[in-house]
User: Which sequence fits this backbone?
């Protein structure tokens, strides 16, 4: 039993009454009923988790976890060397990354948390990514990071050279099908690198053939930032904070949660569909439709952050627009 | 020769040098090359029309044209009576509509222009929507409205009970195919209304069977706000102001332009794909991919306004993020 298992106990549910109130209001607002479709559903969803019939998104916050991967240190599965993880982390800290630029447009803050830069995980081809003790430490670090946040909508993102390899291993192990189909080019690896990546994922998946607990799969073939994301998403649930998921790595990170508790991602939406081919298949598996589909494949929470204005507008469409009765006055 | 024909003369082109500079910068920015895909292309596009290598979207502006339709006054082709046009116009003016709420989230202003509320167009089943003189007046009004705007990205929208009937007639007349396939439920007309709407469109299209000039088609079976949109889009081009197109009505309004000059919409992107079924087909015809696909069907520029943050973020992703060289310093 890991700390992540414990964190999954007693998950709160959304406030059905607040959501129902928004649902009812949406049907009477000064526009053709149903004209905003999905956006009205987003406002309902925020209302349920914020436990208010006047949903708003005023303080979105991005939380990025970064770490290094043992497999990337010893095998060229990425187009970039492991040192890039630390360099990008520095850019997040100085507000100079793409997610930072997006966040400023959205009025969001960004917090970057180092959960293992320079402390690579085990080489997942031959050994567990994380020993149980470190796994639990990462879960606690991530949960504490969420508890420190001041925000009303959480965007989770990641950075870690080699982490689409780990994501493919999780997806292949938990969602099944042909392993190679879960392996994409990530940041843009060449054909030889893609071949190495496929072999690495196949070896990792074969190594853990007997592991049935999805969270153990995450510990065995995941990575530090992937564990942190899973933990942060559950910690946000305990704060009733809705979450916008990002691309392939984030989605693979949270897949184990929903296999333990099918309601575990009810407080999450998917910001975008990545160009990484496995992502669309994972989303189908989760039954979640992405808000955006723009061929992005950056990670660092950028696709999720790009979707934040839609959620904010959805709420404004409920709270700032009168109903027909409010606008025209009471009927005689 | 109408005023709209004249407006289509001597259209300026984008500044290729500025666009190329952004294209080059995008390839060297502190992220995997190509990771933002389409968003980098949006920044290039803004750069070309703004004629600067440092594209920004700081002052988006929504321009909504509203008018009444003769066919809606005499035949129930809409779920709502014509009086709703005036009521909604009032809501725009008071900042209480959905587009107004969206605009506040985006930092945009909204300008609503009455081009024929209470002055319905002709019943397109039996007569031209607009006589040549009124057509030209509307073109001048719309162009003048654009000239008064202070903005760096134009969102065009519309309101007019009955205007999806006019849009379907334009699309059927100009894009061909089975007329009924261009007719959808608009604001939510019932089965009987949909049948009346199909008949109305068929009659209108049959009436103008001999008309070959696309702008004459717009005058014959369009509507005042549709003409205004077409004129505003061309006027924006003369100011080198990029435009975000909205849903079915806006797209049908500008279809004649591209049939006169294939480059006429080079300064336009499509904000979203509407739930109105003809819209997707029209977009395929135009070869334009919508940024959003959220099942919205409101009109009033709401889907286009919802896409504005993506354009602003695309620009920030170029101008506010360093290149690898800027971040790491000059290579040795």
Assistant:
């Amino acid at each position: 039993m890991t700390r992540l298992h414990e964190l999954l106990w007693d998950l709160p549910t959304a406030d059905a009454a607040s959501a129902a109130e928004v649902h009812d209001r949406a049907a009477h607002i000064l526009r053709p009923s149903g004209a905003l479709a999905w956006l009205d559903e987003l406002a309902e969803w925020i209302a349920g988790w914020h436990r208010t019939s006047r949903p708003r998104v005023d303080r979105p916050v991005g939380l990025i976890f970064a770490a290094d991967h043992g497999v990337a240190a010893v095998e060229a599965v990425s187009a970039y060397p492991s040192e890039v993880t630390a360099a990008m982390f520095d850019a997040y800290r100085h507000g100079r990354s793409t997610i930072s630029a997006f966040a400023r447009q959205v009025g969001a803050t960004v917090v970057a948390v180092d959960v293992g830069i320079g402390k690579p995980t085990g080489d997942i081809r031959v050994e567990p990514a994380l020993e149980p003790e470190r796994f639990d430490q990462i879960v606690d670090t991530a949960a504490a990071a969420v508890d420190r946040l001041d925000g009303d909508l959480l965007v989770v993102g990641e950075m870690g050279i080699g982490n689409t390899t780990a994501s493919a291993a999780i997806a292949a192990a938990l969602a099944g099908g042909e392993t190679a189909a879960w392996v994409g080019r990530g940041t843009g690896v060449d054909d030889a690198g893609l071949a190495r990546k496929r072999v690495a994922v196949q070896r990792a998946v074969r190594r853990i053939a007997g592991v049935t607990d999805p969270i153990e799969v995450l510990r065995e073939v995941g990575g530090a930032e992937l564990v942190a994301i899973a933990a942060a998403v559950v910690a946000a649930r305990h704060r009733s904070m809705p979450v916008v998921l990002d691309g392939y790595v984030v989605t693979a990170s949270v897949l184990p949660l929903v296999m333990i508790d099918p309601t575990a991602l009810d407080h999450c939406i998917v910001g975008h569909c990545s160009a990484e081919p496995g992502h669309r298949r994972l989303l189908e598996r989760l039954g979640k439709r992405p808000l955006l589909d723009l061929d992005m494949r950056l990670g660092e929470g950028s696709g999720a952050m790009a979707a934040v204005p839609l959620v904010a507008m959805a709420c404004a469409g409920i709270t700032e627009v009168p109903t027909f009765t409010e606008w025209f006055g009471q009927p005689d």
